[in-house]
Amino acid sequence: MEFPVEKSTFLSMMQDKVLDVPTNAPIKEHDDPFRFVDSCGTSNKALPNEDLLSVVLKCVNFAAIKHSKQRRKDMDQTPYINHPIGVANILIQEGDVYDPAVILAAILHDTVEDTNTTFEEIEQEFGPTVSRIVREVTDDKKLEKHERKLLQIKNTPNKSHEAKLVTLADKIYNLRDLLSSTPVGWTEVRVREYFKWAKQVISGCQGTNPKLEKALDMIFVQRLKEAKDKCDCTNKYNIRSASVNESEKSETSCDQEESESFVSFQSNLENCQKCTEPNEK
Ligand SMILES: [Mn+2]
């Protein structure tokens, strides 16, 4: 099989101190093994297994070193690296995404935003395509947090298919985290605002990956169920019907009734002051 990059570039990657290792010449645009990406986000040029394994492990090692001093904001202070690895894993296990450039970008997606990593470094180590995807999903830290969040809503619809995949998996991971426990220092209002904001960002990714989008639908249904459980309002709709995805309902015999039930369940909860505005000091 023809291999467009010096094999030694990839086979020299299994070093335990990757950042200290002098790298070979930067991967040039025309040599980038990830540059051939079609509209479905699939690499046309297959890398041999040994090179794929090598570059994926190099990438995980790189991100682990970069994030080594960071922890997630959960009670257990989970090592931060669990997050980017989990995001890449969601893409593969739940989204059937096997484009190496997307997987590498997912593993690296928070390195520039949250560590001293530069885009140039990523380009040097993993090529311009991976670097470009990471750039697309990296907030400009020079801007105020509020502005960065608004820009994510505004810019996501115009991002590449690959960047949208990383965005979807990132939100799935973070929202599941929020469902399982409230981060240290977060109020219920902040959690609710995060869900609202995430929904707006995700709406810019519609049509990117049905499986990941369905997983997100399920997360929001779960969130609504929990809001309802906490609420003593009269909008107690049938949870079982609400937990069925709307697209599935259209195939069921009682689809019309169930679909209406789902919509009214959602809108009633969203309109319920108690459900959406829990008491908070
Ligand atoms: Mn992230």
UniProtKB/TrEMBL annotation:
- Keyword RNA-binding attached: no
Species of origin: Cephus cinctus (Wheat stem sawfly)
This enzyme catalyses: guanosine 3',5'-bis(diphosphate) + H2O = GDP + diphosphate + H(+)
Give the domain of life: Eukaryota
**What's in the keyword line of the UniProt record?**
Hydrolase, Manganese, Metal-binding
SUPFAM superfamilies for this protein:
HD-domain/PDEase-like
What's its EC? 3.1.7.2
- Protein name, entry field: Guanosine-3',5'-bis(diphosphate) 3'-pyrophosphohydrolase MESH1
* Obligatory cofactor(s): Mn(2+)
Report the function annotation for this chain: ppGpp hydrolyzing enzyme involved in starvation response.
Q: Which GO terms describe its molecular function?
A: guanosine-3',5'-bis(diphosphate) 3'-diphosphatase activity; metal ion binding
Q: Which Pfam families match?
A: HD_4 (PF13328)
The beginning of the lineage is: Eukaryota, Metazoa, Ecdysozoa, Arthropoda, Hexapoda
Q: Which InterPro entries match?
A: HD/PDEase_dom, HD_domain, MESH1
Report domain HD positions.
Answer: 80-175
Entry-linked PANTHER family: GUANOSINE-3',5'-BIS(DIPHOSPHATE) 3'-PYROPHOSPHOHYDROLASE MESH1 (PTHR46246)
- Annotated family: Belongs to the MESH1 family.
